[in-house]
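ugh ok fine here u go
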Amino acid sequence: MIYRFEDYELDLKTAELRKAGAPVAIEPQVLDLLALLAENHDRVLSKDEIVDVVWQGRAISGAAVDSRIRSVRLAVGDSGQAQRLIRTVRRRGYRFVGAVSAAPPERADETFVKAPSPQPVAAHEPTPEAFAAGVGLYARRGMPSLAVLPFQRFGEDTRFPAAALALPHDLIAALSRLRWLKVIARASSFQFHGAACDPVEAAGRLGARYVLLGAVTLTNAGVELFAELTDAMSGTLIWADQFSGRHDDMHLLRERVTA
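structure:
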């Protein structure tokens, strides 16, 4: 994945930060912290979460985190006074507030070099390159990565029009509390809303090792929920289940899928 902000590019596949196309000197740990902030630009990251991911849970002082934040700001021409890109949220943590766009390396490279179109890859036979951007980064941290995609909605009951979005939204929030699991941000995962999606293709675009898909059927009698978890590296289904309940059981159904 390549993240762009201002005239910078953060290339996770090559572990490189570039400004106007020229490489910027940056330490690996500082690059990991910048990647974490850019990936989660839609929310505030606490110091505890930063330590869990970047330092893999080792005992680190708050001053060490502050020092690394200063290094990240220096690398992107920011400062603690300006906070143009990285803002300190008092008593909560840090947030990347710059405008960020993301694109897979293959698509992003086409902006600069016109290359021949790649040969199609058969479904469920992803190449290692398709996952190197995000999966490799999280693997080095010892963390599995998961994308929860919008669910499909079926049925004629119109009382819960947002159920197919609300359930995966709740799942993302609940699963992101597991500090050993990296959950792709909702803003990225929900770009697949409204379209039939191959989980292997989605994983390649999002940089996730695992993908959770689901479907919600609403009837007058109640709710039926189906969910399946795919290992996108091998294209194999590793878990699937079906749940049912009353209309007021949405919260309980979400908890059961999370468990």
